[in-house]
Amino acid sequence: MSGKREYGDYQTPIDFAEKVCHYLKDFRHLEPSVIVEPTCGLGSFLKSSLLFDAKEYYGIEINPKYCEICRDSIKDDRVHIINSDFFAFSSNTLIKDKRQILVIGNPPWVTNSTLSSLGSDNLPIKTNFKRLKGIDAITGASNFDICEYIILQLINEYRDTNTVLSMLCKTSVARNIFKELKRNYIAFFSYDILEFDAAKVFGISASACILVIQLSDKTNTSDVCNVYDFECPKTPRSQFGYSNGRFYSNSKFVIVTQKKAREETKHLEYEVPKTWEYLNNNIKLFERRKSSIYHGAPPFSMFGVGDYSYSRYKVGVSGFYKQPLFSVLDSDDEKPVMTDELTQIEQNLNLTYYVTDSMYNAFKELLEIGQMTFT
Fold first, then answer.
1. How far apart (Å, rounded) are the C-alpha atoms in residues 169 and 358?
2. Which residue, among 58, 65, 114, has the nearest Cα to 86 in the 3D structure?
3. Rounded Cα distance, 265 and 302, in Å
4. Which of 113, 137, 149, 335 is 20 to 30 A from 25 (CA-CA)?
5. pTM for this prediction
6. 205-226 pLDDT, tens per residue?
7. Is there a contact between 351 and 254 (Cβ–Cβ < 8 Å)?
8. How many CA atoms lie within 13 A of 117 on its CB side?
9. CA distance 151 to 108
10. Strand, coil or helix: 284
11. DSSP letter string over 295-317?
């Protein structure tokens, strides 16, 4: 079995790889002595990272054709291309100068269940690496992203060092990895997410980011992840982390387009033009909704909105656990709290996680007229 789908093969455009490396060098001031690119593919990051002028470069790649292309296109004695399966190889054993290691790359964006369904042997050894309990370990809860597995393996391989990892991944993967680091008490100085437009870079619809982790050889660890826009990385757009042992996020937003079911939405065009523009720019995502609830309804209609949505107090129910969890929902400013089911359209629009410039303008506008709530 071979092919792009098996390998989760989204080759990084060379210009984007160069942009990432310039950010790490000029903005983060990294001076690595050695650079490793696991699953290096055609070697975009290896080529781009030559600007660091490191002493050693290692690229690991399972596809022998890609290895040949890398060797032909990168004529530098410091660069070593290893044709090997990442899951059965340790890059750390090759490194001579370990003063400052930079692990950089773009691991496969595919889940283990997808690879299994394709009959692929490009899989990690089947272990319960998240230590799930009972039935969860053998059902859907054990399905995971291969990219997430690879990054966690790299973290375990280089833990207790000052290694920097800079990896392209889905934002959901980046959040999961943060939780795993905290759960396993792995020390790190900093943990940052820089969002970029995956449709523009890879031609795919996904919430994607550059994950930059500065591991630590000390026992101290950070409790915070800052989220940036890669186009404007100076000021964090949002933040999540741990406080008093509990996970939190200060960046969940829900745009409320109606106050009751099937209410006309045309007035938004005049009352909140930036919001209307943002919604129309993403209208194709709304049109993909198949439920009959939306047939013949005004554009950008919501499901399950009504008088109760604007009540001061609510009871929230989480059904994601074996035993449902109930909680009273209230806010200090006495504004109603709007909950959200995190549907596919909301994942695609990033409505519940991170804020782009156009979203920020829409949110600011809605806040001014009181038609946006926080969860």
1. 23
2. 58
3. 10
4. 149
5. 0.66
6. 788 999 999 999 998 889 999 9
7. yes
8. 7
9. 10
10. helix
11. TTPPTT--SS-SGGGG-S-EEEE
CA atoms within 13 A on the CB side of 170: 21
Measured distance CA(95)–CA(31) in Å, rounded: 16
Angstrom distance (rounded) from CA 59 to CA 43: 7
Sheet with 238-243, side-by-side order of all strands: 79-83, 56-61, 34-37, 101-105, 164-170, 207-215, 188-197, 224-229, 238-243, 246-249
SS3 60: strand
DSSP-assigned letters across all residues of 323-370:
S-EEEEE--TT-PPP------HHHHHHTTTS---HHHHHHHHHHHHHT
pLDDT under 70: residue ranges of the chain: 1-9, 110-144, 252-253, 317-324, 339-375
Determine how many CB atoms are found less than 10 A away from the CB of residue 83.
17
AA letter at 289: R
DSSP string, 120-133: ---------TT---
The token pair that represents 152 in the structure block: 């966690």
Q: Are 298 and 266 in contact (CB under 8 A)?
A: yes
Two structure tokens written together for 251: 């960046």
Give the pLDDT score at 360: 53
Q: How does DSSP classify residue 88?
A: G
User: Quick one: pLDDT at residue 137?
Assistant: 41
Three-state secondary-structure class, residue 134: helix
What pairs with residue 193 in β-bridges? 211, 227
List the end-to-end C-alpha distance of the chain, in Å, as a whole number: 45
Q: In the 8-state DSSP scheme, what is residue 94?
A: T
Determine whether 229 is exposed, middle or buried from the number of CB atoms within 10 Å of its CB (0-12, 13-18, 19+): buried
